[in-house]
């Protein structure tokens, strides 16, 4: 067993101001443009893999560029609204920038000339990257007439902007339901206390932690239905945005000779096309259907028994807002598993340490926490871990752990 590894800190420096984000965006834009300009101007004698393909693999606006990560990632996790807005805008700029690169006719022609005339012996990975780059150009419509290319670019830009608005609406949603203790019967008292409005009611948001608690613990079916329907109809008109996004995607897929947007997405992936994906799903569905039907009837019987005990009429249906609740109760009854009781015996620090030890043993890694004062982060409680190979201390990577919940965050996890 080698000596403990020297702790390495990643080179990411998270922006503290909107100006710092904007400066990163400007730098990435300029470097990307310079790369494309250089490739577009290559002469015949300069058409080599190193000159033509490699710069496009490592293009400045790809996620592998630390500045791209630093500029756009804070939209998901920064506690500062202005930084989230600036990072979201940066993400939209980078997406447009990638699309611009794939619409560069001069770069496309250079790559096409290289592919046609090159006599270089390429490795399997090199052939893969060359094929993938050409496919990206094709999926950007460079084979279309100029007027059609302009129309395609406009449609793709509109779709990109709508997607950004959709994501922002989810993250920034402030919908809150004001419910009574009777409506939240079954939910732990400690959880209720943290959401009291001090006037006898409780504030329930549509964020993931609140949704999970209500759906798994609240005995009142009408409350679960209310929360479920609120979640499905909130987020600032996202349903209308989704309809527009689907329409735009179908438009540009058709312009590129795909039967549907799913075919556009699947091209180049393992599944190949939408038909294969659909066949796989349908085949899997049929194989799982018998077991699913048994489980459905089991939950339905338990719902009936539970409502009979409460003298509440049984409607004969297992609604979407019933599934999590009755699955949880059935697990508690048949296996004696109460997640809330178990949670009390698993404090966060213990869970994190034990999880890290588990992964170390399974994957042959060594996971070392980096001292908080030695790395940059988006808020003070973010933790950073260094991952090395347990046999030779070779650096494998890093990951951040952010378990703090903010009202704007819909999902929260490891980064």
Structural class: mainly alpha
Shape: globular
Number of helices: 17
Total strand segments: 5
In terms of per-residue confidence, which ranges show pLDDT below 50 for 5 or more consecutive residues?
410-415
Strand order of the largest sheet: 3-4-5
Question: What is the helix fraction of residues, given as a range?
Answer: 55-70%
Distance between the termini: 29 Å
Strand content: 5-15%
Mean pLDDT: 89
* Order of helical and strand elements: HHHHHHHHEHEHHHHHHHHEEE
**Major pleated sheet:** 3 strands, antiparallel
Radius of gyration, CA atoms, in whole angstroms? 26 Å
List the helices and strands and how they pair.
Layout: H1 18-40, H2 49-52, H3 54-57, H4 66-72, H5 81-102, H6 105-117, H7 124-139, H8 146-172, E1 176-180, H9 189-193, E2 201-205, H10 208-217, H11 221-233, H12 238-255, H13 261-266, H14 274-309, H15 320-335, H16 339-343, H17 348-363, E3 365-370, E4 383-389, E5 395-401
Antiparallel strand pairs: 1-2, 3-4, 4-5
Helix pairs in contact: 1-4, 1-5, 1-6, 5-8, 6-7, 8-12, 10-15
């Amino acid at each position: 067993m080698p000596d403990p590894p020297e702790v390495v800190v990643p080179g990411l420096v998270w922006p503290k101001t909107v100006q710092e984000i904007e400066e990163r965006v400007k730098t990435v834009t300029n470097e990307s443009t310079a790369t494309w300009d250089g490739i577009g101007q290559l002469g015949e004698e300069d058409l080599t893999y190193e000159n033509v393909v490699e710069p496009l693999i490592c293009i400045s606006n790809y996620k592998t560029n630390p500045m791209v990560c630093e500029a756009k990632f804070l939209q998901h996790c920064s506690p500062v609204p202005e930084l989230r807005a600036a990072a979201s805008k940066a993400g939209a700029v980078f997406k447009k920038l990638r699309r611009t690169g794939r619409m560069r006719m001069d770069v496309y022609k250079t790559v096409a000339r290289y592919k046609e005339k090159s006599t270089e012996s390429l490795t399997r990975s090199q052939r893969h990257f060359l094929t993938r780059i050409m496919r990206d150009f094709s999926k950007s419509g460079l084979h279309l007439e100029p007027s059609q290319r302009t129309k395609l670019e406009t449609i793709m830009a509109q779709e990109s902007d709508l997607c950004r608005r959709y994501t922002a609406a989810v993250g920034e949603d402030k919908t809150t339901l004001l419910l009574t203790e009777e409506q939240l019967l079954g939910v732990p008292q400690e959880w209720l206390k943290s959401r009291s409005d001090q006037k006898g009611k409780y504030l329930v948001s549509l964020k993931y932690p609140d949704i999970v608690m209500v759906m798994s613990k609240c005995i009142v079916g009408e409350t679960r239905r209310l929360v479920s329907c609120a979640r499905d109809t909130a987020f600032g008109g996202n349903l209308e945005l989704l309809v527009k996004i689907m329409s735009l995607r179908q438009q540009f897929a058709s312009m590129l000779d795909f039967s549907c947007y799913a075919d556009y997405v699947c091209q180049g992936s393992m599944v190949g096309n939408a038909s294969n994906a659909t066949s796989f799903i349908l085949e899997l569905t049929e194989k799982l259907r018998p077991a699913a039907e048994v489980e459905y009837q089991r939950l339905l019987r338990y719902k009936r028994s539970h409502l009979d005990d409460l003298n509440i009429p049984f409607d004969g249906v297992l609604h979407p807002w019933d599934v999590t609740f009755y699955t949880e109760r059935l697990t508690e009854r048949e296996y004696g598993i109460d997640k809330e009781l178990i949670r009390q015996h698993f404090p966060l620090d213990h869970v994190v340490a034990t999880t890290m030890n588990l992964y170390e043993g399974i994957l042959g890694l060594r996971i070392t926490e980096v001292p908080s004062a030695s790395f940059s982060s988006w808020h003070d409680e973010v933790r950073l871990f260094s991952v090395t190979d347990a046999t030779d201390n070779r650096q494998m990577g890093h990951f951040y752990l952010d378990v703090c919940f903010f009202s704007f965050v819909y999902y929260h996890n490891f980064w």
